[in-house]
């Protein structure tokens, strides 16, 4: 073997070894393209697509702190309770929406944390519901309150109760109809126990009661005017109430009048103002109010209410938004309980940041 042959053989061997190593080398995969958060504006401002899905998510909430003073009359007491308080609240809301062949599939969840004078914090699942094609199931405010738009634009709007006894938030199965021409309607089966616990408005034992309460309403809006009516049936007491409301928007001010009728004024039921103090409307109650926008940062509101028991309440406030999403709201309330010859006053100042 000559030197030339030896060199050629060595070169061939080296080439073979190099090829083998090249065949065994790990080739790095191409990096996945970075997926940025996509805006989802089909359901309104603030929604974005959850990465990797077609579900839209909106995160929001508010932080509130408020201080006040009061000398509130309470039934069964010779003298009203007097004092001051400071209350702080935080709420976190999560809304989801996905397009389906039956319309948007939505969820709404709100968790609330409250701190009052003292050193304890309470946590509450305020709302948790699913909606699709006009149907809603889960926990939400009673349609008896929401369908009419609650009452006036004041904090202390329920001295004469327009909602239900206990708490408005309850489990329900609801169907809402919107014809698209101004006509709307609602029917709702609502949990008779989730609002009041195991006791009815008159002390009835409802622990083995299974029939739901029923709420139904209809309304029509044309131009600056809107008319709505809603009724609620308390299946434990076997009585109910009906409310009707008229709203008008005149541009320089908005106004509303709302009246309620109790099917039996001699009985308390959750839809006729049977509040925690054990007081109802009697046979009827009426509410009214106005709102006057002074400019884009300032609005003045007034609400008046009166019932068959000759209870009169007046609340006024000023809502000031120095910057977007920040609210400063001082408010004053006067109440006269004619049946017991009691007058009360209460004041509050609220600071609230919404996001």
Q: Can you walk through the features of this model?
A:
The longest helix is centred in the N-terminal third of the chain and has 22 residues, at 3-24. The chain is globular, with a radius of gyration of 31 Å. It has a 16-stranded antiparallel barrel. It has helices at 3-24, 143-146; strands spanning 48-49, 56-72, 81-100, 103-115, 121-132, 135-141, 169-178, 183-190, 213-222, 225-234, 239-249, 254-262, 284-293, 298-307, 311-320, 326-337, 342-354. The protein has a single domain, classed as Porin. A hairpin with a 3-residue loop joins strand 14 (298-307) and strand 15 (311-320). Residues 10-17 and 75-79 have low confidence and may be disordered. The N and C termini lie far apart (88 Å). With 355 residues, it is mostly beta strands.
Features:
single chain, 355 residues, mainly beta, Porin, 16-stranded antiparallel β-barrel, 2 helices, 17 strands, 7% helix, 52% strand, globular
List the helices and strands and how they pair.
Elements: H1 3-24, E1 48-49, E2 56-72, E3 81-100, E4 103-115, E5 121-132, E6 135-141, H2 143-146, E7 169-178, E8 183-190, E9 213-222, E10 225-234, E11 239-249, E12 254-262, E13 284-293, E14 298-307, E15 311-320, E16 326-337, E17 342-354
Antiparallel strand pairs: 1-2, 2-3, 2-17, 3-4, 4-5, 5-6, 6-7, 7-8, 8-9, 9-10, 10-11, 11-12, 12-13, 13-14, 14-15, 15-16, 16-17
Overall geometric form: globular
What's the level 1 CATH class? Answer: Mainly Beta
Structural class computed from helices and strand pairing? mainly beta
Roughly how many Å apart are the termini? 88 Å
What's the structural domain tally?
A: 1
Order of helices and strands: HEEEEEEHEEEEEEEEEEE
With helices defined by DSSP (H or I, 4 residues minimum), what is the helix count? 2
Largest sheet: 16 strands, antiparallel, barrel
**Strand arrangement, major sheet:** 2-3-4-5-6-7-8-9-10-11-12-13-14-15-16-17
Helix content: under 10%
Architecture per CATH nomenclature, i.e. the level-2 architecture: Beta Barrel
User: CATH-wise, what's the superfamily?
Assistant: Porin
């Amino acid at each position: 073997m000559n030197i030339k042959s030896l060199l050629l053989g060595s070169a061939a061997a080296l080439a073979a070894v190099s090829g083998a190593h090249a065949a065994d080398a790990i080739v790095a995969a191409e990096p996945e393209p970075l997926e940025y958060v996509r805006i989802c504006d089909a359901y309104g401002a603030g929604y974005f697509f959850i990465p990797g899905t077609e579900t839209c998510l909106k995160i929001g909430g508010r932080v509130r702190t408020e201080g006040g003073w009061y000398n509130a009359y309470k039934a069964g007491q010779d003298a009203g309770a007097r004092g001051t308080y400071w209350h702080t609240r935080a709420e976190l809301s999560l809304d989801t929406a996905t397009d389906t062949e039956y319309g948007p599939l939505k969820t709404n969840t709100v968790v609330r944390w409250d701190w009052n004078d003292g050193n304890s914090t309470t946590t509450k699942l305020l709302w948790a519901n699913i909606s699709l094609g006009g149907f809603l199931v889960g926990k939400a405010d009673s349609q008896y309150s929401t369908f009419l738009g609650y009452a006036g634009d004041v904090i202390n709007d329920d001295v004469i109760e327009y909602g239900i006894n206990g708490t408005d938030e309850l489990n329900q199965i609801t169907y809402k109809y919107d014809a698209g021409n101004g006509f709307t309607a609602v029917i709702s089966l609502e949990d008779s126990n989730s609002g009041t616990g195991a006791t009815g408005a008159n002390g009835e034992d409802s622990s083995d009661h299974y029939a739901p309460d029923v709420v139904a309403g209809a309304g029509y809006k044309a131009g600056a005017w809107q008319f709505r009516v809603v009724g609620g049936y308390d299946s434990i007491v076997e009585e109910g109430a009906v409310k009707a409301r008229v709203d008008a928007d005149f541009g320089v001010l908005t106004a509303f009048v709302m009246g309620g009728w109790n099917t039996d004024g001699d009985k308390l039921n959750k839809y006729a103002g049977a509040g925690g103090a054990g007081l109802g409307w009697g046979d009827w109650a009426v509410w009214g109010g106005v709102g006057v926008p002074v400019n884009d940062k300032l609005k003045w509101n007034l609400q008046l209410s009166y019932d068959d028991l000759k209870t009169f309440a007046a609340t006024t406030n000023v809502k000031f938004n120095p910057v977007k999403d920040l609210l400063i709201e001082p408010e004053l309330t006067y109440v006269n309980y004619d049946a017991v010859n009691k007058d009360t006053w209460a004041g509050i100042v609220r600071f609230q940041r919404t996001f």
